[in-house]
């Protein structure tokens, strides 16, 4: 691959069927592991280090997290400058042809190959398109909610759009409750 275009770990070309996306960068699935302990990662577990490598949450915390008493476990904080660590990328495939009507990915309409498919209610999605229809967070089987409109949502957005309405059915500390 051209310099700066391939996998950040090995430098090789990354093809669609073998890619893993993190923070806008494409990696080989075999290279997408913690730089320190070599634990396999997914896009939900990967933390970008300041050295342009990826780490699991535990190793990121040990190497770059706060130091001192009480900080021996793996923190979930990955940004200390107050900026959001969530990044969204264009959900469309890099190349390929549009699939026949009703046959492709529900989000982008392009053909989905077996190595990159996610399935929900017998509908097929690309891994990169398998995200909340509202906030665009990546989803997996543990945080997926199928909406009545045919789209998929994270728990929070599903509750906001399709959850119960009225007194006592809100989110957060300021919610009114019936005593």
Automatic annotation (TrEMBL):
It is found in: Nucleus. GO terms for biological process: muscle organ development; muscle tissue development; sarcomere organization. Its main location: nucleus. Pfam families: LIM. GO terms for molecular function: actinin binding; metal ion binding; structural constituent of muscle. SUPFAM superfamilies: Glucocorticoid receptor-like (DNA-binding domain) (SSF57716). InterPro entries: Znf_LIM. The keyword Metal-binding applies. GO terms for cellular component: nucleus; Z disc. Keywords: LIM domain, Metal-binding, Myogenesis, Nucleus, Repeat, Zinc. This is LIM zinc-binding domain-containing protein. CDD domains: LIM_CRP_like. Residues 5-66, 103-164 form the LIM zinc-binding domain.
């Amino acid at each position: 691959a051209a310099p700066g275009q391939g996998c950040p770990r090995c430098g090789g070309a990354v093809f669609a069927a073998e890619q893993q996306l993190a923070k806008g960068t494409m990696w080989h699935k075999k290279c997408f592991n913690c730089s320190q302990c070599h634990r396999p990662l997914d896009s939900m577990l990967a933390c970008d280090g300041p050295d342009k490598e990826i780490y699991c949450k535990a190793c990121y915390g040990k190497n770059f997290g706060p130091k001192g008493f009480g900080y021996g476990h793996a923190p979930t904080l990955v940004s200390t400058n107050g900026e959001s660590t969530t990044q969204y990328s264009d959900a469309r495939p890099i190349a390929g042809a549009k699939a026949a009507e009703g046959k492709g990915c529900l989000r982008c309409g392009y053909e989905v190959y077996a190595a990159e498919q996610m399935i929900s209610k017998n509908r097929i999605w690309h891994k990169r398109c398998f995200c909340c229809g509202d906030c665009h967070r990546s989803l997996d089987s543990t945080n997926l909610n199928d909406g009545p409109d045919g789209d998929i949502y994270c728990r929070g957005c599903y509750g906001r759009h399709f959850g119960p309405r009225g007194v006592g059915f809100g989110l957060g500390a300021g919610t009114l409750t019936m005593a």
